[in-house]
Design brief:
It contains four helices and eight strands, in the order αββαββαβαβββ. With 242 residues, the chain is an alpha+beta fold. The chain is elongated, with a radius of gyration of 32 Å.
């Protein structure tokens, strides 16, 4: 006796429904068409917050007659700087070595080849200070411990996504208002949003980094974090119609 398997039953069912499925597939392109007008709007909005994180780089530059002496002097002085960073409450995860170098120093004279007069060693670390209120004290401590190079600080928002979302919402409202204006001018209405894309990405402001040669006589550094502004750029396509 012939016995129907589940696969044969499924195939029979698909063959039976074939004309219906084909009819639906043929109707889909027609359903996707529209008699409306498509309007593309670009909108940008900002959101600002007081920054809660400061980043900077600091280090030591030393010179000596030979490379080994320059490196030893640098390492000893840099160890004091790193210990000061730890004592200031900066977490280990917020301290990262960014560069170590030893370079010869030259004397140049007319009609003579350059002559090495000594060596310069440098060691730099990037640090993140999460308590901006203590940033001035941290800078003072760094200088007192022997740091003679400081770059920064730059100010950031530690968790920026909520601020970005605020900017996104404002940009979307701006795009909707602009679409309504176009629609009213044309005697139409906004039917729907067809698509939304984040055009141009999201760029936090790039701070201007200042390099400062520091010495122990420098007074306490004043710190003014101000505000950090984040931007959202949206490209929104609307459908307009009667």
């Amino acid at each position: 006796m012939f016995r129907s398997t589940p696969a044969r039953l499924l195939l029979a069912g698909l063959l039976a429904l074939g004309p219906i499925a084909m009819t639906h597939a043929q109707q889909s392109p027609a359903a996707a068409t529209t008699d409306g007008t498509l309007l593309s709007v670009s909108a940008r909005a900002d959101a600002s917050r007081t920054p809660d994180v400061a980043t900077l780089s600091t280090g030591v530059v030393t010179q000596a007659s030979d490379a080994n002496a320059a490196l030893k002097a640098n390492s000893a002085q840099m160890a004091k700087v790193v210990a000061t960073i730890r004592a200031a409450g900066v977490a280990e995860r917020d301290v990262q070595t960014s560069g170590i170098s030893i370079q010869p120093q030259y004397r140049y004279a007319e009609n003579q080849p350059p002559a090495i007069t000594g060596y310069q060693a440098s060691n730099t670390v990037n640090i993140k200070v999460r308590d901006i209120g203590k940033l001035g004290e941290v800078l003072d401590a760094l200088v007192a411990s022997g740091a003679n190079q400081v770059h920064g600080p730059s100010f950031e928002i530690d968790q920026p996504e909520a601020v970005y979302d605020e900017a996104r919402q404002a940009a979307l409202k701006q795009a909707q208002a602009r679409a309504e204006m176009y629609a009213q001018s044309l005697g139409l209405r906004v039917r729907r949003i067809v698509s939304i894309s984040e055009g141009g990405g999201f760029q936090p402001p790039v701070p201007m980094m200042k390099a400062m040669a520091m010495d122990a006589r420098m007074e306490s550094a004043p710190v003014a974090p101000g505000e950090t502004t984040l931007s959202a750029n949206l490209d929104v396509v609307f459908e307009l119609g009667k």
